[in-house]
Design goal:
Oligomer: heterodimer
Helix content of chain A: over 70%
Order of helices and strands of chain A: HHHHHHHH
Distance between the termini of chain B: 58 Å
Number of helices of chain B: 2
Helix content of chain B: over 70%
Strand content of chain A: under 5%
Shape of chain B: rod-shaped
Chain lengths: 242, 47
């Protein structure tokens, strides 16, 4: 297993190998994301039963929870890639950092907007400055900060290093977001999926939720592969030693 | 029945706005990265 991982990471250092792999994977992954998301959305809207307390409004959960999960997952991926780039100077890791920031920002915004649309009918307000919402908003600012910082530094090498440092520092927000509902008195409910005693959702709601989550995950992989492909072409233009 | 589907028990505005925004975000990001790739290829062939 370790030998396989070593060989895999060795290959990832070769842009030519990575480009070839991406060209093969892009189409099936794109179709998989489309199929998963369209099926999942259909199940979310019409198959999952109506909730006895929240009525149909709870169906926003099927978009809000995956988006929020992905906002954290993408940042973890970004931070780990930043660390790999900073320590081992693997250029592909920097490409992943660069590619993850915009999609991470968009999904964080989606989590906030869908949360606001769920909050209005349930809590009577679109927004409240509670710990979970505020820390998630901070995450959006972190993503935007990474994008703006990279663009504002002229030297790409220097910019990448500074962005890597900011990405690692910003990772502090992740446990705050996750544990905010336990550490403080918040309006936002506690976790229903990542519970010590297991998910507290009925299976007819759980399976569409997991399906949508999987769809978002595959979608992210698709977007990242597209971005890496573009970036490899750009670097071919910029430098001959890519 | 169609009206019932769109109404979603009076929460229709919120639900369809959330799903509409989600689809818009997902599609926009695919458009964004594909547009960038086409621009890069165009620059590559021009040079």
């Amino acid at each position: 297993m370790i030998k396989f991982l070593k060989q895999f990471f060795h290959k990832c250092v070769s842009p030519k190998w990575v480009h070839g792999a991406i060209e093969k994977l892009l189409t099936p992954i794109g179709y998989a994301a489309l199929l998963l998301l369209s099926t999942a959305f259909a199940l979310d809207l019409w198959w999952a039963p109506t909730d006895y307390q929240q009525g149909d409004a709870y169906r926003i959960m099927f978009v809000h929870v995956p988006a929020a999960f992905m906002s954290l997952f993408i940042y973890v991926t970004l931070a780990v890639s930043a660390l790999v780039y900073w320590v081992w100077h693997i250029k592909l890791a920097n490409v992943v950092v660069k590619a993850s920031a915009p999609i991470g920002a968009w999904l964080t915004l989606l989590a906030l907007v869908s949360g606001a649309l769920w909050g209005k009918p349930m809590w009577g307000t679109f927004w409240i400055w509670d710990a979970r919402l505020t820390s998630e908003l901070l995450l959006l600012f972190l993503y935007l900060g990474l994008i703006i910082l990279r663009r504002s530094i002229e030297d790409p090498e220097q910019g990448s290093k500074v962005v890597a440092v900011l990405a690692l520092l910003g990772a502090v927000d992740l446990p705050i977001i996750h544990y905010s509902v336990y550490w403080w008195n918040t309006l936002h409910q506690r976790s229903t999926l990542l519970n010590a005693s297991g998910p507290t959702l009925d299976s007819k709601m759980l399976y569409p939720l997991l399906g949508t989550l999987l769809g978002f995950l595959v979608y992210y992989v698709f977007i990242i592969l597209l971005e890496i492909r573009s970036e490899l072409w750009v670097r071919r233009n910029v430098s001959t030693d890519v | 029945m169609l009206a019932q589907m769109f109404d979603m028990g009076t929460y229709g505005v919120y639900i369809w706005s959330a799903y509409g925004f989600s689809v818009a975000v997902l599609l926009f990001n695919v458009y964004r990265v594909i547009r960038r790739y086409k621009k890069v290829i165009k620059n590559e062939t021009a040079s």
